[in-house]
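REVIEWER CHECKLIST
Item 1: Sequence provided? yes
Item 2: Single chain? yes
Item 3: Sequence as submitted:
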Amino acid sequence: MKPIELKVKSRLQTRRAGVRKLRADDRVPAVVYGKHNPPMNLEVQYTDLLHLVHHSATEHLLVSLIIDEGSSSRLAFVQDIQHDALTGTIQHVDFHEVHTDEEVTVILPIEPTGEPVGVKVSGNVLEHVLFEVKLKGLPKDLPEVITVDVTELQAGAVIHLSDVKFPDGLSFIGDPTTPVFSISSVKAVVEESDEETAEEVEPAVEA
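Item 4: Structure as written out by the authors:
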């Protein structure tokens, strides 16, 4: 994963009133922390952060924080983005500092590529079961998204986590038998959905 440059400034406002003023001025309070350096309060232009997120497949991005016009820089992952519950606007960002020679653990999305052979048969659909996977590896070896070729997937077949070919240098964390993709008939999917709905409906109580 190639780091994306993000310009930030050191932040002096830490009290509630100062943080509110930052947000009113279209700036987002942030913090960067890691085991090698002390935590540092930062601020980011809202538009810069929004552009970064909207043009990426995941929020778990590797960024090169250019602090105070280049006076210093820190390599970090976007660890957490906090949104306002009502408006959805970004309220705060946590950056986790990393080193290029140290393994990290991140959660990345999984997406299919290709049209499965089993889907070409009338009545079958591709089920996307697992949408994210936890991976461990060096920052440079991590892609933004894990893609899985499902072209050869036959009707009734399942791709488990252990079947996925991850990039060299990466290892997954989780149950290897976890299904990622499968080919099911529309009838089976509908019947399963009906059963789940029936279980949610409480039986009527007779007087």
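Item 5: Key structural point noted by reviewer: The mean pLDDT is 87.
Item 6: Recommendation: ____
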